[in-house]
Amino acid sequence: MAKKAKTEDAGAAGEGAPKGGKKKLIMIVAAVVLLAAGGGGYWFLFKRHSSEEVAAAEAAAKAKKPATFLEMKDMMIGMSNGGQQERQPIMKIKVVLEIADPKVSEEVKPLLPRVEDAFQVFMRELRPSDLEGSAGMYRLKEELLRRVNVTVYPAKVDAVLFKELLVQ
Asked: Is residue 122 exposed (0-12), middle (13-18) or buried (19+ Cβ within 10 Å)?
């Protein structure tokens, strides 16, 4: 019996050594796979996109055309006084339209009288208090841009720029 116990103990010890080696091997392989996956994820999220973005930015810079600026006539517009003042406030404004494509600029030029009319009809109803602060100027610029794009459709104006805006 003693001999059988020794052989069982030796067999158990012999089996234990390979199991421990297999566990270590599995842990090492798992660590290598985890590091490879982490490195691949880093490259996928950060490196790959940055090189694509650089290439896209270079292509856009090459393809970018200079904008065309179309000046409108100076306008003096009598504003609504809201019944609070005896004299009517006057607005003097110089506007420039920014257009991305020079061909579109040629389409917009014949429509400038309509654009001026749309601007004047809108601005006659403004009060000086509507233009106070940068928020008032921003709202005016966005409303004028909307009106000019409605007027010159299907052409598109990219921005309305103020050269001068004076309210007296």
From this structure: middle
